[in-house]
Amino acid sequence: MSFTVLQDRCIGCGACDFSCHSDALVKTDSFLGVFEIDPYTCDDCGVCVGKCPETAIVPDDRFPVCNGHGCPLTSQRLADTECAVWQQRCPDCGTTLWREAGASEFVCPKCDNGRKVSCPKTRLLATIPFGKVVAG
Fold first, then answer.
1. How many CB atoms lie within 10 A of CB 34?
2. Phi first, then psi: what are they for 36, rounded to 5°?
3. Residue 9 above 80 pLDDT?
4. How many whole angstroms separate alpha carbon 91 and alpha carbon 129?
5. Domains in the chain, start-ordered, CATH in brackets?
6. In whole angstroms, how far apart are CA 11 and each of 31, 49, 71, 87?
7. DSSP-assigned states of every residue in 3-60
8. Percent of the chain with pLDDT over 90
């Protein structure tokens, strides 16, 4: 399950950010300095959920789960699609890179000249703007 930070519960302590190995938590510019999860960077491991003292990090059912290798939620045509989570990120935007079946190189689904690897999470991200406040 993907996750989101409930802005009205977050106290900006940074426990989630400190525990995140993928640097997916971003401090907002708000007065309180609360955090948001960058869905392009988050690998849905859930470590941050247990670290939050205010239970402000909750499942976000708008997105399918990222499992770090292919995607069991998609059709057979994506069965061999592979992501480079924990190995390699786009040098321009920091997004985890993807490689289609049979391809020799990983590509960025976010900014690689419009080339999109059909990760279902990335497809949904195109329809929901990052930074949208979610209240609990």
1. 20
2. -130, 155
3. yes
4. 22
5. 2-60 (3.30.70.20)
6. 11, 14, 34, 32
7. EEE-TTT-----HHHHH-TT--EEE-SSTT--EEE-TTT-----HHHHH-TT--EEEE
8. 24
pTM score of the predicted model? 0.55
Q: Distance between CA atoms of 54 and 117, rounded to whole angstroms?
A: 36
The pair of three-digit structure tokens given for residue 27, joined into one six-digit string: 């401090």
Q: When comparing pLDDT for 24 and 127, which is higher?
A: 24
- Mean of all residue pLDDT scores within the chain: 73
* CA-based nearest residue to 86, from 122, 117, 49, 45: 45
Beta-bridge mates of residue 107 = 98
pLDDT higher than threshold 90 for residue 50: yes
The pair phi, psi for residue 60, each rounded to 5°, is -120, 100
Residue with tokens 């990120």: 89
